[in-house]
Amino acid sequence: MPLPPLNGLRAFAAAGRHLNFRAAADELGVTQGAVAQQVRGLEGHLGLRLFLREPRGLAFTDEGRAYHLSVSRAFEQLAEATDALRHAPARVTISVTPTFASKWLIPRLSDFTQAHPGIDLRITATERVASFHADGIDLAVRQARPPFGASLRANLLFTQEVVAVCSPALLAGEGAVDAATLARMTLLHDTHDLWPRFAEEAFGGSVKPARALRFNQTTLSLDAALAGQGVALASRFLVQRDLEAGRLLRPVLHVMEGGLDFYLLSPRQGVSSAAIIVRDWLCAVAKGEAG
Fold first, then answer.
1. 3-class secondary structure, 280
2. Which of 47, 104, 135, 285 has the fewest CB atoms below 10 angstroms from its CB?
3. 149 CB contacts (<8 Å, ≥6 apart)?
4. Are 264 and 139 in contact (CB under 8 A)?
5. Which pLDDT tens digit goes with each residue over 22-78?
6. Interstrand relation of 261-267 and 152-158 (parallel, antiparallel or unpaired)
7. Residues 273, 199: contact at Cβ < 8 Å?
């Protein structure tokens, strides 16, 4: 059997609460005749009587009483679901690389949640290229170079300024090191494999280290550097806090322009107001740190 008309169910639910068509009409903001007509239509649809019309008002039939309990419960559930939806936080999903997530975004999340408690920020850490539509992504941070597609808006967050970093314990009080000293250290590599170019620019030639460790993510090489396992390369903004706190030092003062800068990407159309707030916050924080 197809579902009854919604107006008939609303009229029946109200009439059942009051057992009076006039009181139900006042609750719904319609005429008494309209309520009576909608209830009759519902009874016709169901093929049974729901109320007994008595001189002093209405009385349930046995079927009507049982049906009213179920209908009232259904309307209560609809009201609760609607209220929960209205008060649910806005959700924004941002796709970032694992290194950007762990070394830059996560340490700053408390500032965002305090400023915008009504936004539920969801972070997807992945190296793969995400699809805004297919993956349900609102914003994405990627290393890239322009131009970008006409359908995308790109905000530059940070230029890629590559620096060498290591634990203070590894230097044992020494300052900047030369190529020979660096060669006696362990060089920590990631998938970007920037050490050959960095050494060429910094020292005018290659550096053949005594030992090398290779990782598939920059965040792992940085964790190894913090643990005193060797010297890593990373974009300066990713290690700025560790440098300022003294957890990392720069054994080589050269700064290499990487060419693959960090951009915040978003669709030009259909961006939610919450996503715009997140986008503006990211850009403002990045601008403040970039100076």
1. helix
2. 47
3. none
4. yes
5. 999 999 999 999 999 999 999 999 999 999 998 888 999 999 999 999 999 999 999
6. antiparallel
7. no
d(CA 278, CA 245): 27
Tokens 């390369």 label which residue? 233
Q: How far apart are CA 249 and CA 163, in angstroms?
A: 10
Instruction: Give the residue among 87, 65, 67 at the shortest CA–CA distance from 75.
Output: 67
Q: Which two tokens stand for residue 274?
A: 């919450």
Q: What is the pLDDT of residues 139-165, one digit of tens each?
A: 999 998 888 888 899 999 999 999 999
Listed in sequence order, the DSSP H helices in 88-213 are 98-100, 109-115, 168-171, 179-183, 195-203
Residue 120 β-bridge partners: 91
Helix or strand or coil: residue 125? strand
Separation between Cα atoms, residue 26 and residue 16, nearest integer Å: 14
What is the mean predicted confidence (pLDDT) over 3-30?
A: 92
Cβ-in-10-Å burial (0-12, 13-18, 19+) of 273 comes to exposed
